[in-house]
From TrEMBL, chain A:
Keyword hit for Ion transport: yes
Annotated source species: Enterocloster hominis (ex Liu et al. 2021)
Keywords recorded for this protein, A-Z: Cell membrane, Ion transport, Membrane, Nickel, Nickel transport, Transmembrane, Transmembrane helix, Transport
Annotated protein name in UniProt: Nickel import system permease protein NikB
Record's subcellular location: Cell membrane
UniProtKB/TrEMBL annotation, chain B:
InterPro entries reported for this sequence: Peptide/Ni-bd, SBP_5, SBP_5_dom
Entry keyword set: Signal, Transport
Keyword Methyltransferase tagged: no
Source organism of this protein record: Enterocloster hominis
Keyword Transport: yes
Protein name: ABC transporter substrate-binding protein
Region (Disordered) location: 26-54
């Protein structure tokens, strides 16, 4: 197992190299001029060609593609992802500054999501083709058919504006504002993200449970003694959890990349807003850094997922 | 910043333990609600105790903070904060010049400006740069900033602006400066309103002004929590005592949510109320809407170089086909009857010199779709089998690009395209990502585009001059030497009335040639709690909340 | 000899009769048929839109009639903020939305399932290559992909489908691989192996039918999210024309009217939900039909 983990970490290095090259080339062909955006394109700013060229040279954008890429890679290898065009701050620090907020929101929304999905999914499977099943399907359907901004704004309009139960915006820090404020600021964004997650997971859990309930060995188990029955059912259940874990892994990865819409609506200072902003402004170092960090996160999560596979079904060999 | 980072991590760790009990309570909704109510009461109570020690005004801004560097910012959101911490010599609200660090100016001849600065201006104390030492600002400090800004090596974003109007700066005495301009410059004072004065000491000592801004404004920097809020406190050394003790800028990226936060009393001012939220704010007794002093110009520009649009008659015909009055009404309709925008008949905001609606209307074409068809037909366009005009086998078909970050502009573009479709022109409205849009306009890769801008004293230059325009987001490739000459003349005409006449002439040429489909002047509404005082005197966040002109406060 | 090795009777069923069995089981499933009926009605109404409405969804814009509530005579579902008939926009918009939703789901499932199957079945270096590639695709910024596609290929509905398929297939791949890994360990697959069946036959006849459950769930849900994501791509400039109707675009258009004219979002929202629900029911039916152990 340890050698497996070690091997996977080794594979991460070429993976990150490949993605860095891909993102670098893609940014190269993407329209949009960071210098133009940096210098202010609006009404008040006059920018002479000399000033424009100076900034372009300062950012190294006048260098040929390959040279720029080598500069980036040599920096990245030594742990330096560069500095943001816009703020001049270190890219890694800038992302990490926003990571805690994203982490908090991810954990909270996954909890909300599972809290809804697990009971609902199991209920739908146990009462297969009953009214409960239809209700669960119906709720899950609505969950994926309405956009995230809709959940966010509806929650804010009803629970904050009308009922005044929760604040409409922002994060609260435990040290600055206290635990109560912290939780009440967290609640709405977590619920709005969690419900979307619950929709997919409810369906996944239902389907997996059906699989378990219909396995021949469950029928077989019924003929066995109580102790054997438990063993067999646990085995079947664990095995059926594989797709649930897979999807959950992907969801968590995506959430850690930042939930742009939810962060924007709830004024949540996470990495999603940073990522979107840096794309809108063509802040190349920031976009590259963000992508590399997110890729590392995905590699890690999917490694975990694979390890969990082996735990769920010991016959799956990690190789 | 490091400290904040650590405490955020601590919060993150605490939530891991704190989350479990929170989830358990969801089973009993009632108990949950009362718990939450207590939370809110608790925070309110906490706020009350803090307000007994001081008055806080909380302002919602939709913009992310890019930088605190006084020479480096370009975004409105940065300016909101920076203008409270730093001072410029003059502020310029629409057409009104307000002295800030300057006290007065004289204009002995057209190319000389003597500016006297206040004798009671000091750099902020209580920071690592100046400690508790009260250091006075003198003329030489200001001269240094001007010279520093004009030196291209320093990369100030104001370098081009300032160098184009100032040729040299001299110190006459401790508090008087003499600016010399290469030729008479009508926009001299206006240009100075963009240049913030910052301490030389910071540059000399390598002090990081981005991490801790130190200026001479009415408010001192306290803290910035990433993407969350900026806190400023009052500068008691300022020559006017600010009416608030603390200013908090809350970053709320979604404008609708910001309006809700205002309705909830979470913030006192919101920077911009969307037209769709106007009714809700207007309906609430304790809130009011304050329109921006200046109507921002929004238009649909033709690329005059595009083969379809080289002929002004065609541009006129297309303009005639669109009911712009109805379009503007539809975009800004609200039942509260708030004036959100007025129809534009020319390119200069009505508050600025050069705006002359009567003259424009004389030169403009009116809504007349039948007339439009006649012009098109007289130019050889014929309706094809599919009802679309064609000429020499080519269809009259083009794209109008609209920036996707402003719903009103997308709407204007969509209405224009639909009404053109109605008379048989295949016009596609394409929302376009902002950065792509700018590149396209700069490269001339547009046919028509919806844009906004030029809503300042140098607007005509920005929008239409072939060479002087250093702004890349308005390229219509309108090439008229006569018009250029008038704009150049305006730039060296100091007398405002005279200048206005020249600009009016230039702008009516634009109207006559239908270079733009003139859209509207948008009066952006700032939403405000009625307990905020003195704000509406200069209803903008662009300038300091406390200067010689206004001193924003908050009543209990 | 085979009988001795293969102890699961299903895997012995010859492929042909298994697939016809699937069809028979599906037709016996009432909820699945209801789903198919709903989807059929939706598709028919959208395709034959001019039969049901006399309004043109784009050109019939009467600015004076904007934001009429549902039930207004002449406008059964009201008008939008441009004064266009919502019912007609809903019907015409369904043409693009349903097509986009289904094609994105099917294309990305086809790609993802194939790659996932190969990855899980062969394992080792192939698995590592394919899975690291999915990791890359999952962490790639979607916006950049969309903007680059728009720049390179131009704006069209087809390119929207391409962009969405590029970002959705990795989930199918991971899901399928996970299933294959676990099913691969079952006795009957191992015995099929020893029996000398070809890899293709084992993959498609023995393994794939057993991982259909989660794949179908993912596929049906992908229909909804594709319709929604298509709208955001439209707004980025990947779309053809802002004035063309599209369910996702209609939803976004109503965003600022949630308090004043909530029907602008609820109507397209219901349309999307109904489609996704129908597809889900069909999916459930398929799942049951595919499940060889679930005898109807």
């Amino acid at each position: 197992m340890w050698s497996y983990i070690f091997k996977r970490i080794l594979v991460a290095i070429p993976t990150l190299l490949i993605i860095s090259f891909m993102i670098f080339s893609l940014l190269y062909i993407t329209p949009g001029d960071p210098v133009l955006l940096m210098l202010g394109s609006g009404d008040t700013q006059s920018v002479s060609q000399e000033q424009y060229d100076a900034v372009r040279a300062e950012l190294g954008l006048d260098k040929p593609f390959f040279e720029r890429y080598m500069d980036f890679i040599t920096g990245a290898v030594t742990g330096d992802l560069g500095t943001s065009y816009i703020t001049g701050e270190d890219v890694f620090d800038t992302v990490m500054m926003r990571m805690p907020a994203t982490l908090i929101l991810t954990v909270a929304s996954v909890l909300v999501g599972l809290l809804v999905a697990v009971p609902l999914g199991i209920l739908a499977a146990v009462k297969h083709n009953s009214i409960w099943d239809s209700i669960a399907t119906f709720l899950a359907t609505i969950g994926v058919s309405l956009p995230k901004f809709w959940f966010g704004l509806v929650l804010i309009i009803y629970l904050s504006l009308r009922l005044k139960i929760f604040p409409s915006q922002g994060i609260a820090y435990i040290d600055r504002d206290g635990l109560g404020a912290f939780l009440s600021h967290l609640f709405l964004p977590a619920v709005s993200l969690g419900l979307g997650l619950a929709a997919t997971q409810t369906r996944m859990i239902r389907s997996s449970m059906l699989e378990v309930l219909n396995q021949d060995y469950i029928r077989f188990a019924k003929s066995k003694g109580f102790k054997d029955k438990i063993v067999i059912i646990r085995h079947a259940f664990k095995n059926a959890m594989i797709p649930v874990v897979t999807v959950l892994g992907s969801e968590i990865g995506a959430l850690l990349g930042g939930a742009v819409v939810t962060e924007t609506i709830f004024s949540w200072p996470g990495v999603g807003r940073l990522a979107m902003n840096s794309i809108a402004r063509r802040d190349y170092p920031m976009i590259q850094g963000n992508t590399l960090i997110l890729c590392a996160i995905f590699l890690l999560i999917n490694l975990f997922v694979d390890i969990i596979y082996a735990w769920l079904n010991p016959r799956i060999r990690l190789n | 910043m490091k400290k904040r980072f650590i405490s955020v991590i601590l919060s993150a760790m605490m939530i891991m333990t704190a989350c479990a009990p929170k989830e358990e309570t969801t089973s009993t909704v009632a108990s949950k609600q009362s718990e939450k109510n207590e939370d809110i009461q608790a925070t309110e109570a906490a706020e009350e105790t803090s307000s007994s020690t001081g008055k806080t005004i909380t302002i919602g801004t939709p913009y992310t903070i890019d930088t605190f560097l006084p020479w480096d910012f370009t975004s409105d959101g940065d300016r909101y904060v920076i203008s409270n911490v730093y001072e410029c010599l003059f502020e310029y609200d629409a057409n009104t010049c307000i002295p800030v660090l300057a006290e007065s100016y004289t204009n002995p001849d057209d190319c000389t400006w003597d500016v006297k600065i206040r004798e009671n201006a000091y750099w902020h104390t209580g920071n690592k740069l100046f400690g508790d030492e009260k250091v006075q600002i003198k003329a030489e400090d200001v001269k240094w900033v001007m010279d520093w800004t004009m030196d291209p090596a320093n990369g100030s974003k104001q370098q081009t602006n300032l160098s184009s109007v100032v040729s040299s700066v001299e110190v006459l005495d401790d508090f008087t400066l003499r600016f010399t301009t290469p030729e008479p410059k009508a926009l001299f004072l206006f240009t100075l309103s963009r240049v913030m004065i910052f301490p030389k000491k910071a540059i000399d000592e390598g002090f990081d002004l981005n991490a801790w801004p130190v200026g001479s404004g009415a408010f001192k920097y306290v803290s910035y929590q990433t993407d969350d809020q900026v806190v400023l406190e009052k500068n008691s050394d300022y020559y006017i005592t600010p009416n608030v003790d603390e200013v908090i800028f809350k970053i709320i990226p979604d404008k609708s949510v910001s309006a809700i936060a205002l309705q909830n009393g979470e913030i006192d001012i919101t920077a911009q109320v969307l037209s769709t939220d106007i009714d809700a704010i207007a309906a609430q007794e304790d809130l009011e809407l304050v329109p921006n002093t200046l109507g921002w110009y929004r238009y649909a520009g033709f690329n005059c170089k595009d083969p379809l649009f080289t002929d002004p008659e065609i541009r006129k015909a297309l303009t005639m086909a669109v009911d712009l009055d109805a379009a503007v009404d539809a975009i800004f309709k609200n039942s509260a009857g708030v004036k959100l925008a007025v129809r534009a008949y020319g390119p200069i905001p009505l508050e600025l010199p050069g705006a002359d609606e009567t003259l424009w209307k004389e030169n403009a074409v009116a809504y007349d779709p039948e007339g439009a068809k006649k012009i098109l037909e007289s130019k050889g366009w014929k309706t094809g089998a599919d009802g679309i005009y064609e000429k020499d086998g080519k269809k009259f078909s083009f794209t109008i690009k609209t920036p996707n970050n402003d719903n009103n502009r997308v709407k204007l573009g969509t209405i224009i395209s639909t009404q053109l479709k109605q008379i048989g022109i295949d016009c596609v409205a394409q929302p376009t990502e902002w950065a792509t849009m700018l590149t396209d306009i700069k490269a001339g890769e547009t046919q028509m585009f919806v844009m906004g801008g030029g809503s300042s004293l140098n607007g005509m230059e920005m929008l239409f001059h072939t060479t002087l325009s250093q702004s890349n987001s308005h390229r219509v490739f309108y090439d008229n030497p006569e018009c250029d000459a008038l704009i150049e003349k305006a730039a060296v005409t100091i007398d405002p009335e005279e200048r206005g006449k020249v600009l009016a002439d230039a702008s009516s040429m634009i109207v006559k040639d239908a270079v733009h489909m003139f859209g509207y002047f948008e009066y952006v509404q700032i939403g405000m709690n009625k307990k905020v005082t003195d704000f509406e005197k200069a209803p903008t966040l662009w300038y300091s909340l406390c200067n010689g002109y206004r001193n924003v406060g908050i009543s209990e | 000899m085979k009988k001795e090795i293969i102890n699961d009777d299903f895997s012995m069923v010859p492929a042909k009769s298994y697939w016809s069995d699937v069809g028979r089981r599906f037709l016996k499933n009432r909820i699945a048929l209801l789903g198919a009926l709903i989807l059929g009605i939706i598709v028919f109404m959208c395709a034959a839109a001019p039969l049901f409405t006399q309004y043109d969804p784009v050109k019939d814009m009467v600015l004076g009639d904007m934001l009429l509530p549902p039930g207004t005579p002449g406008h059964i579902l009201g008008t939008d903020d441009y004064g266009r008939d919502i019912f007609s926009r809903l019907l015409y918009g369904g043409r693009t939305s349903v097509l986009t939703g289904l094609s994105v789901a099917i294309v990305s499932a086809a790609v993802g399932v194939t790659l996932g199957c190969i990855s899980g079945y062969f394992g080792g270096i192939i698995d590592n290559l394919i899975m690291r590639f999915t990791d890359i695709m999952m962490s790639f910024p979607f916006l950049i992909i969309a903007i680059a596609i728009m720049a390179a290929l131009g704006s069209s509905q087809k390119n929207i489908v391409i962009a969405l398929a590029i970002v959705s297939w990795p989930r199918f791949a991971r899901l399928t691989r996970g299933q294959v890994l676990s099913i691969k360990t079952q006795e009957y697959v191992e015995s099929a192996n020893t029996a000398g069946y070809s890899d293709m036959r084992i993959m498609f006849n023995h393994i794939l039918p057993n991982c259909m459950g989660p794949i179908i769930v993912q596929l049906t849900l992908a229909v909804g999210s594709a319709i929604l994501s298509a709208a955001s791509l439209n707004f980025l400039g990947l779309g053809v024309d802002a004035s063309l109707p599209d369910w996702g675009v209609m939803l976004n258009q109503g965003r600022n009217y949630l308090q004043t004219a909530s029907y602008l979002t609820t109507i397209p929202g219901i349309a999307i939900s109904l489609t996704v629900l129908a597809v889900n029911w069909i999916g459930d039916g398929l799942r049951d039909a595919f499940d060889p152990r679930l005898r109807v």
